[in-house]
UniProtKB/TrEMBL annotation:
<dbReference type="InterPro" id="IPR050300">
    <property type="entry name" value="GDXG_lipolytic_enzyme"/>
</dbReference>
<keyword id="KW-0378">Hydrolase</keyword>
<dbReference type="GO" id="GO:0016787">
    <property type="term" value="F:hydrolase activity"/>
</dbReference>
<dbReference type="Pfam" id="PF20434">
    <property type="entry name" value="BD-FAE"/>
</dbReference>
<dbReference type="InterPro" id="IPR029058">
    <property type="entry name" value="AB_hydrolase_fold"/>
</dbReference>
<protein>
    <submittedName>
        <fullName>Alpha/beta hydrolase</fullName>
    </submittedName>
</protein>
<dbReference type="InterPro" id="IPR049492">
    <property type="entry name" value="BD-FAE-like_dom"/>
</dbReference>
<feature type="domain" description="BD-FAE-like">
    <location>
        <begin position="48"/>
        <end position="245"/>
    </location>
</feature>
Amino acid sequence: MFLELEHLPNNPTLQGQAELFPNIQYSKSGQFLSLLVPWAVNQAREHISPRPVIVFVQGSGWTTPNLNFEIPMLSKYAEAGYIVATVSHRSYEDGYKLPTFLKDVKCAIRFLRANAEQYHIDPERIMIYGTSSGGNTALLVGLTGNDEQYRTDEYPEQSDAVNAVAECFGPTDMTSIFENLAGDMEVAEMLKMALGEDESTWIEQLKALSPVNLVTPENSQIPFLLLSGTVDPVVPAEHMEKMYLALKEANADVKAYYVDDAVHENNFWSPEVRQAIFDWILQKFPVD
């Protein structure tokens, strides 16, 4: 009997396939990251070069990020050939004052470089991408590469500098965020936990954590992508605007998008937004 069946090709290079390796401890402080890895890295390594890495920091208000929140979105990057590391960090709510979060994320980047051979990582190609407080973190990481004040004693021989930064609705001027909430008792208590009891130090600490204050021609020689919703009630679009102008003044390679009628998270994530970010990463931080 003749079967009228069609034939399809197989996938010898495992293109478009990815797997998740969750909860890899990167620090003696008990912090974890999860890796989204192209199948070929573990099953056909001889056929592909070491992979570029996208380090992703989920927004959490500088508390503990949910490592799994954006896994569905990020899997697209692993399917395209990137290794994606979603990174956790310590929370001010647990007594770890700012900028502990920044030290932790930088430690994770050094961990990835220290273990580049094991994970088939190209240590010369690491970028960072973040949302909300994770966007603030991404910008700070991008502008403070190898800054000794944020370096811990783990993997000291490795660099924590990155090759590109993408961020969505991240605070860039921390002083304005909290000045707008002056008098709110809950915010005051949060600041005490995050910055310490001495209120006279808060403004200077917030300035140091404001990426817009840190931009120089020397530290902004990597590409930056900025996105903000036009009606974001949490981090208004003026944060992106200030950052864009500061980077432009420093002659940085920067691209920025308004997302029309978008708030904080939620309706921000249109297919067009996801595609614009994906296309920018492919262009500025190519996979091969």
